[in-house]
Amino acid sequence: MKKRFDLKLVKRLYAFIRPNRKYLFLSLFFSLVSVLSSLFATVLAGAGVDCIVGAGEVDFERLGVIAAVIGVTVAVIFAAEWLQNIFTQKLAYKTVRDIRNGALETLQKVPLSYIDTRDKGDILSRVVTDVTEISDGLLLGFTQLFNGVVTIAATLVIMLALKWQIALVVGLFTPLSLLIANYVAKHTAAEFKKQAAKRGEMTALVDEMVGNQKVVKAFLQEKNNEEKFGKINAELQECGVKATFFSSLPNPSTRFVNNIIYIAVGLIGALMVIGNPAAFSVGTLTAFLIYAGKYAKPFNEISGVATELQSAFTSARRVFEVLDAEQEEPDSPAAEVLRAEGDVALEHVKFSYNKNVELIRDLNLRVAKGERIAIVGPTGCGKTTIINLLMRFYDVDGGRISVDGKNIENVTRNSLRGSYGMVLQETWIKKGTVKENIAYGRPSATEEEVVAAAKNAHAHGFIRRLPQGYDTVIGDDAGGISEGQKQLLCIARIMLDLPNMLILDEATSSIDTRTEIKIQRAFDAMMEGRTSFVVAHRLSTIEHADKILVMKAGDIIEQGTHAELLQKRGFYYELYNAQFAKV
């Protein structure tokens, strides 16, 4: 179990606070003004009580002055607390903004393997929910902690100055309050850690269920998902109830201690006055009773803040796990900017996602500029993996991949990836207008260029029928746009700015047969003179490829044209006949 107070973690958090530390210092300054003004008001209240000696013995002139000063002091307290709150909120929001920006920047730089091996919902929970917990628990809680510590210290000094004997009695109860705070902090840390983890699991499950609702319903998995959700929810409830139980202990416990302190001060003060009426005045005793309450109250608040800090530290660790994620190895300072013509070579390439399970072994391939290469094979044979390697989403474990004779590890990733036009099997539409989606890769594109790209992708017709045409706002989960239409928009993105190399990964799998024929004709024209890699299970889309690579278990077992592979009557022949046996 990690220690409850982690100085290293606090230093890392302060690194995000440092750029906005002026708000921190201003918040602490006005907090100090508020606390000291409040204590000064208590002195004035005691002096006011002493102005009322008895019936007919009221010093109205002095009492009026004291009342006026109390009024000014209360106004100062109000203004100081208002300013403290403003600066604290500014500090919290700016710090949270910087942490989230840092997390997003890290996620943009991590290798694809980091995203592929983690629940997307858990990552989302860390970036959104856990960062909010840091703001609520750590930044806002810290100001409460500072208020409490200053109040305790200043009150104790004043009480010692007024009557040290009674101050010592008050101080005797301090260890009891500290023991309560320590007990609460010790037992809440583990429960808050479990709670944060379960929130991440729940977010991941809900994201999975909602994002794939059609599949869930098609396979009648609603009941199973409800049971999974119910189990996680019950576990979250259990650790949440325990965390709430321990975090709720400080309030009644410290109130009990507060009442004992209050009674002790009142009783001992009364006995001292009875024994020696000149010991101190009624006003001083009144001020002491108020100070006793002020001294004890922060222990209650500090105990509550301790539980918030535990939750915040737990969330901070989860967020820093994202910030500390290993990033892609940066481009070498000597890396060249690639201006690809289209010659691609894979030489003795070796790769596996799991180092204990081989996937691609000694893969060799040479592709001349303008060739159309089709890659086919059963699921899991390594087709999409080749695409990942070509784009350098993953680096090879052995061998090399080169473009125009240049090892892709010696060119910048941006220039390499910008040299390919890619249409993936999984369509993605960003929240925005149709025009913005088509111009995603080149936001400066003119409307005429966008329309021309849509026409080339055979998307112009359905776009015109949308409520606002190219200005219709759509999203990845927007209704009214079919999967096929989404894919047409993705194809239009590539049509807008054609590079010299293309990657089509199951590009027509979501399009009806009639549209597929039109798209295939457009693709034929688009691929003319461009190096193209086509990954497809539908063999009808690749019959005209210059070379077809047949993969199985990470190896290229056959290669040739469509006609040549059929004549060989090998694995490709079997795949082809399996698809068209009934035709």
- DSSP strand (E) fraction? 5-15%
Q: Strand order across the biggest sheet? A: 8-11-12-5-13-14
Global geometry: elongated
Number of domains: 2
Question: How far apart are the first and last residues' alpha carbons, in Å?
Answer: 65 Å
Helix-residue proportion: 55-70%
Mean pLDDT metric: 81
List low-pLDDT spans: none
The helix count comes to 20
Number of strand elements: 14
User: Which fold name corresponds to the CATH topology of the largest domain?
Assistant: ABC transporter transmembrane region fold
Summarize this, please?
This protein has helices at 7-17, 21-50, 60-109, 112-116, 120-162, 164-172, 174-211, 213-218, 222-248, 250-275, 282-323, 383-390, 413-418, 434-438, 447-456, 460-464, 483-496, 513-527, 562-568, 571-580; strands at residues 52-54, 57-58, 344-351, 360-367, 372-376, 398-403, 406-407, 420-423, 432-433, 473-474, 501-505, 531-535, 547-552, 555-560.
Structure write-up:
By secondary structure, this protein is α/β, with parallel strands linked by helices. It folds into two domains: 302 residues, ABC transporter transmembrane region fold; 237 residues, P-loop containing nucleotide triphosphate hydrolases (Rossmann fold, 3-Layer(aba) Sandwich). It contains 20 helices and 14 strands. Strand 1 and strand 2 form a beta hairpin. The model has no long low-confidence stretch (mean pLDDT 81).
Throw out a few tags for this protein.
583 residues, ABC transporter transmembrane region fold, Rossmann fold, 6-stranded mixed beta sheet, 4-stranded antiparallel beta sheet, 20 helices, 14 strands
